[in-house]
Each structure stands twice: as structure tokens, then as C-alpha cells.
Design a protein that fits this description.
This protein is of the alpha/beta class and 312 residues long. The protein has one domain: Aldolase class I (TIM Barrel). Helices cover 31% and strands 19% of the residues. The protein is built from eleven helices and twelve strands. The protein has a twelve-stranded mixed beta sheet with strand order 7-8-9-6-5-4-3-2-1-10-11-12. The structure holds S-adenosylmethionine. S-adenosylmethionine is lined by residues 21, 27-29, 31, 63-64, 66, 91-93, 115, 154, 156, 183, 185-186, 188.
Length: 312
Amino acid sequence: MVKDNFGRPVTGLRISVTDECNLNCFYCHHEGCPASSHEMTADEIGKIIRVATEFGIRKIKLTGGEPLLRKDIVGVVAAAARPSIDEVSMTTNGILLAGVAHELAEAGLTRVNISLDTLDPKTFHRITGNGSISNVFAGIDAAIDAGLKPVKLNMVLLADLNEHEVKTMMTYASKRGIILQIIELLDTNGGVFPAYHRGLDDIEQGLRSQAVAVRTRRSMQARKKYILQRGEVEVVRPMHNSKFCMHCTRLRLTPDGYLKPCLMRNDNLVDLLSPISTGDLETARKAFAEAIARREPYFKGVPREICVHARV
Ligand code: SAM
């Protein structure tokens, strides 16, 4: 297992497989990626993951944009599901999931996070700009039916919009035996954050008082998991939380093949696709080592300027 200069093991690769999205969520951080000029092929992604395994990477997360917009997404999953990879997961808005969940599971997808901030069609439309919530519900049911486990719902908490829906979302998730993940809004694009940021303190306090057990998931940026009488809820609190960064074990990859050492920065990317596409594995290994060397905690307990919105 390779560790960075801060003693953090690097065990996960979060790959943004496309810039394209079929929704337009007003708060979206676009995985912190600058606009991409092209997309890596499934074959290139497979080769990159092969090099990644030499550095101890064992978990692959496919994200985007919307990963299911790629026509070859089943092939991408199959390319990622190498023998030395323990887990291939995906974060999706679920709109297209119903039609492909079984194929994805067969190709080697182990689990899925489905982004759903609300159960209310009107609020859904206000947040996403378009798309039909009923497709997301169908996608959730298909993911469960396909045996993807666990299925998690990603709910970004937004002041005045969905903060009153935590309980109903918990009930929806627990009825289906899936996990609700409540996510603090990350400050990424100017005006949105002051208007919609909603702290999670009181919600966590409520969860703690109801929980039959509380676990800290060290491999997942020290996030807390609350085991309730009915269901499980995870809480993701990145903002100015030094533990979040100290427990970060992942590298990122942009759709056009740049290694990205931190969600919050675009000034330290490393080109990986060029050596991969010419078959120069030695330079590809050097690129990986360089990206790991460039990793440093972003939130060190002291608030600093956010630069993730720098999309060019
Ligand atoms: N299109 C896919 C989806 O909707 O899940 C994958 C990409 S989306 C950028 C990945 C996750 O990031 C989603 O769960 C989304 O809710 C979350 N996200 C986006 N912007 C965020 C922000 N500003 N703060 C916290 N989470 C955010």
C-alpha cells in the first residue's frame, strides 16, 4: 500500500467518465473538474486501473457528469472490474438506471450511490432543472433488484428546499433496506453556498440520540454512520473539517485523463492519458507517483479560499 507525504494510504480512484449530464443541479461541483475536451475510452480506463493497482488502489468509483450517459458504460464497468480490484461502485442520478442496472451488476458493478435530494417532484425539478423523479424511483428499485449492495441515496441538504424532508427520506430508505447518506453542501460556486448551506449539527445530534450504534468509517473520510432501529444513515461533512482530509484515501481522474490529487484544486493535475495512450507504462507510473506526491490536505482546520469552481 502506497502512502502520501501525510501518511495517508491511497486506496481509491474516483473516475469522472464524462462531463455530460442529463440534469442541471444548481449546486453541482462537477467533481471539481475543469471542462474536458474529450473522454477516455473504456480500454484506456482499464489500462489506467491496471497501473493504479500497482500503487495499491483497490476501490474504483465511477462518476461524472452522469456516467450512465456513456453508451459504453457497461464496457467501462467491465474494464474497471479487474481481479485485483475489490470494489467498483458508481454515483449516478439514477435517471437511466432502470434500463441498465442488471447489466451493470453482471459486468462487475458492486454497489451504487443514487443522488436524490427530495421525494417531491416539484422540489426535484427546482433542484435538477429537468428530468423525471419517477425514473429515479424506478432506478432505485432496479438497483435493489439487481443485487447492487449497498444501494445508498445521496441527499445534499439544502436550506429551505429539502431540510424538512430528512425524516421522510429516512423512512423511504429504510423501507427499501437502503442507506441514506446526508451530505453537507460543499462551497463550490459562489452564490449558491450562502443561500443554501444548512449545517448538519442538529440532525447529527438527533441521529446520535436515536442510534443503537454509531460507527466511524475511517476508510471513508471518518464519516459517521448511525445504525437506527430502522435503517442506517451516514453523514458527510467536508467543510473545513480537517478529519475529512486527513482520512482521504482517494485520487481522482478527470474525463480527459488527468490525475487530480484533490477535489478542491485544479492547479496540480497530472497528465496520465498521454503516456497511457502511447503505451509508455513507465511514464504512466511516474505520473501516478507524482500525483500521490502532490496530495495534501485541503482543509487543515483553517478556512481557506475555495477554488473548485474554476471551470474553464
Ligand atoms: N451525475 C451523478 C450524480 O448525480 O450522482 C454523478 C456526479 S455528481 C457531481 C456526484 C455527487 O456529488 C452527487 O451525489 C451530488 O449530489 C454531489 N454533489 C454535487 N455538488 C455538490 C456540492 N456542491 N456539495 C455536496 N455534494 C455535491
